[in-house]
Amino acid sequence: MASKTQFDFFKAVYDEEIRVHSELESKAKLYLTIITFYLGAISFKINDLVGVTQRLQIPITLLVAIAVILILAFLFTIGAMGIRKYERICDLETVIRSFGEAPAKDNDFLDEGLVNLAVATNRNASQNNRVGTLLQCASVLIFTAISLQLGVLLFMVFKSRT
Description:
The longest helix is centred in the last third of the chain and has 56 residues, at 106-161. The protein has five helices and no strands. The chain has one domain (4-161). Helix 1 (4-44) packs antiparallel against helix 3, helix 1 packs parallel to helix 5 and helix 3 (60-81) runs antiparallel to helix 5 (106-161). Helix content is 84%, strand content 0%. The protein is rod-shaped and about 85 Å long. It is mostly helical and 162 residues long. 17% of the residues are buried.
């Protein structure tokens, strides 16, 4: 028999997964903003970038590589932001219909709720883990692209001084 304390514990774990979902959504929005800004800036100045890279003899493949990496990061972020299948604790109308003539005893009701919370929490956690993995890949790609861009900029500065 489940106690109210045990039920509250399971409910707190379920609520934690909901909080993680919100945090992942915020991260995805931040990554999307960074990528969009970066790709927009590159596309706005593409002619200038091509001219400078030709003048300083910087391989254009570096700029293409940065763009491809950012596009991959964009795709991972969009994948993370896709509609996810989250599990509800229960369908309240179904619960009410299951009462029949008399509602279930509190202990039986808590036992059923505990099982529902456990299943929903595990399913939501697996969704959050998938999203977290996609965002982790996107962050590595963003870091890589920005590092390459900074390397190209430093190379351009040193090359233009010589």
